[in-house]
Amino acid sequence: MVVINLSRGWPNPALLPAAALASASATVLASPSIWQPALQYGPDEGFQPLREHVAHWLTEFYQPRSPISPDRICITGGASQNLACILQVFSDPVYTRNVWVVAPTYHLAGRIFDDAGFAGRLRAVPLDAAGLDLAYLREELIAAEFKASRELNLTPEYKPKRPWRKIYKHVIYATPTFSNPSTLTMSLSDREQLVRLAREFDALIITDDVYDFLQWPAEPAAQETQPEHAQLPRIVDIDGYLEGGPSDEWGNVISNGSFSKLIGAGMRTGWAEGMEKTVYGLSQTGSSRSGGAPSQFSASMVAQLFPTRVLQKHIKDVLQPAYAARYKRMMSAINEHLIPLGVTPTAPRGTAGGYFIWLQLPTPLRATELASLALREHDVEVAAGNMFRVQGDPATEKNDFDNGMRLCIAWEDEDQLEEGVRRLGCAILQVLQKR
Fold first, then answer.
1. Ranges for the Aminotransferase class I/classII large domain (predicted)?
2. What value does the CA radius of gyration of the chain take, rounded to a whole number of Å?
3. Residue 179 carries which DSSP code?
């Protein structure tokens, strides 16, 4: 049998707008007024037409209380590259006490935090169907401040002062909407409380807002009309208005966006949004000052997708219907093959989205053992829950997800999604019969 990969979180090639990108590339290379600046280093803040298009597009989708200015937008080399840049500018490997990670979390972010000097200082903040454990986060923030005071860790030691830089005492990392891997969406109340905590404890919240545009009605019988606007304000939007707005010119949130899930990860193009001073500071990362915008040519291509609304149409007419169909096909298979065995999928209310479905396994199943068996004997690859634990956090009870499992709806074709779930059911039954 051919291995069915329900672990890989990549877009299916059939859903990528290759023809639109070919046309965009031809437009860029046929126009000296575009290709000449596009093939140069570019301004630190990124390709200006794309900054303007993204600002208008985000305003249209999120409908914040005030229109988003292009000065709040910095073009990046994608969400992963930009996460590293944010840490370079706004954190210090000693003065910044901890990185607080909403868990389970995107498993490859840990290496980025390690590279920034935070190995061993990542701490999990659980998010489940009941919400974010804000009481636990507050207690741990207080403890971290007490420890810093006792150790006289009162001023940044390793990062020199710069007019474009602010060093935060804490970093909080989250994917608030359709989280990878749990697919949970943080409630409005939790988003607001998180902003309040960030202001109180001088924390920078970094949100990966990369799945927001991929949304659809969760109920199988719901109308096929796709939602056109975000269901909740982003945390960066909340920071803009909550209790009069940010406490200073830096704010406490950076929204990290990417085109990877929409038009192709290989484009290596994304955007960041925050306060104008924060965005300018981000553009002053050493690598951007040396090389200019990190995705100058790709950004010039992406910019061509906006004037005729090619991108918006691709999301509405291709991506949303396709991923909705895949989601419903996989959920139908889960209902048939896994729920009778005691497996419980994450059940979003009203609106589903993103790339994943998170499963809770019945006792005594452990995901690590099950994933190994499923691949070895049933030719289906799935992601065991502890792949998404926060690396190095000693609080095991807050950071053990081996009763969970992530399935991806994006990579395989629809028929393979259903067959993969059936094979996983066979693996679960095999384990249960041995118990």
1. 4-424
2. 22
3. -
Tokens of 133: 């454990």
Q: 52: how many CB neighbours lie within 10 A of its CB?
A: 15
Query: What single letter denotes the amino acid at residue 9?
Result: G
The span from the CA of 206 to the CA of 10, in Å, is: 22
Residue with tokens 């329900």: 6
Tokens of 380: 């289906």
pLDDT along the chain (435 residues), means of 10: 95 97 98 96 96 98 97 97 97 97 96 96 94 96 97 91 96 97 96 98 98 90 76 97 96 98 97 98 94 94 97 97 96 97 90 97 95 98 97 86 97 97 97 85
The pTM (predicted TM-score) of the whole model is: 0.97
What are the structure tokens assigned to 105, written together?
């979390």
Q: Which residues pair with 352 in a beta bridge?
A: 216
Residue 223 burial (10 A CB sphere; 0-12, 13-18, 19+): exposed
Give residue for tokens 């905590």. Answer: 197
Write down all domains in the chain, each with its CATH number in brackets: 4-15+311-434 (3.90.1150.10), 19-309 (3.40.640.10)
Predicted pLDDT at 224: 64
Cα distances (Å, whole numbers) of residue 92 to 117, 125, 215, 380: 8, 21, 36, 42
> What is the rounded distance in angstroms from the CA atom of residue 122 to the CA atom of residue 323?
33
CA distance 142 to 85: 27
Contacts of residue 60, Cβ cutoff 8 Å, sequence gap at least 6:
none
User: In Å, what is the CA distance from 396 to each residue of 171, 173, 176, 392?
Assistant: 21, 19, 23, 10
* Length of the chain counted residue by residue: 435
Q: Could you identify the residue written with the tokens 């053990």?
A: 400
CB atoms within 10 A of CB 148: 18
Helix (H) or strand (E) holding 201: helix 188-201
What is the structure's pLDDT at 319? 97
